[in-house]
Design goal:
The complex is a heterodimer of chains A (111) and B (130). Chain A is an all-beta fold and 111 residues long. Helices cover 0% and strands 43% of the residues of chain A. Classes of the chains: A mainly beta (111), B mainly beta (130).
């Protein structure tokens, strides 16, 4: 049950945009529009940011957006803010006997 | 307020057992599938187990299969994880999470259902060490 592939870390300055990638296979990311993204601050619960590739739950800033091309999904944060510094995880439905798979996580540093 | 509160974590020796609990409030617990997800120190999120709304369909990650048992009591709005034969690598913060896949099957979902986890608890820490 290998995880989806994310960069270990990304960084950016306040106000800049950043993109985090999430690469899977045709059995998960590429085969279904069931990619979600989560934000986790240290010591806190994960928070759903994006669901079904590109949809934002109520209350999530429109600075967060999601997309997908082939086997790679992406999370873009426009106009970075200091409070965006956190760990970000992607997840996808996977067509196997266990449906859930997460990415390894990306640590975002706001310089 | 929709809320999940985990409890039951602690320090246990290798080979020992623990039972985690997750108390749900603010929503109709019996209508949702539930999950346990963990995060080991310095690692990412790892899905552990899930159970459908009635408790009739259960699945486990290979890393815990045969050692962990998920269950729920809809009358008590509670989710449980019985962990036996614990190993050092089970050390992690364990989260319970609600998912919205109740109307999904084989990758297809009815409108309003999604493969995501929309509500999470704050987590309970399990440390396996001698």
């Amino acid at each position: 049950q290998s995880a989806l592939t994310q960069p270990a870390s990304v960084s950016g300055s306040p106000g800049q945009p950043i993109t985090i990638s999430c690469t899977g296979t045709s059995s998960d990311v590429g085969g279904y529009d069931h990619v979600s993204w989560y934000q986790q601050h240290p010591g806190k619960a994960p928070k759903l940011l994006i669901y079904a590739v590109r949809n934002r739950p109520s209350g999530v800033s429109n600075r967060f957006s999601g997309s997908k091309s082939g086997n790679t999904a992406s999370l873009t944060i426009s106009g970075l803010q200091v409070e965006d510094e956190a760990d970000y995880f992607c997840s996808s439905y996977r067509s196997s006997n266990t449906f859930w798979v997460f990415g390894g996580g990306t640590k975002l540093t706001v310089l | 307020e929709v809320q999940l509160v985990e409890s039951g974590g602690g320090l246990v020796q290798p080979g020992g057992s623990l039972r985690l609990s997750c108390a749900a409030s603010g929503f109709t617990f019996s209508s949702y599938s539930m999950n346990w997800v963990r995060r080991a120190p310095g690692k990412g999120l790892e899905w552990v187990s899930d159970i459908n709304s009635s408790g009739s369909i259960i699945s486990y990650a290979d890393s815990v299969k045969g050692r962990f048992t998920i269950s729920r009591d809809n009358a008590k709005n509670s989710l449980y994880l019985q962990m036996n034969s614990l190993r050092d690598e089970d050390t992690a913060v364990y989260f319970c999470a609600r998912d919205r896949s109740g109307g999904c099957s084989g990758g297809s979902c009815y409108p309003g259902y999604y493969y995501d986890m929309d509500v999470w608890g704050q987590g309970t820490t399990v440390t396996v060490s001698s």
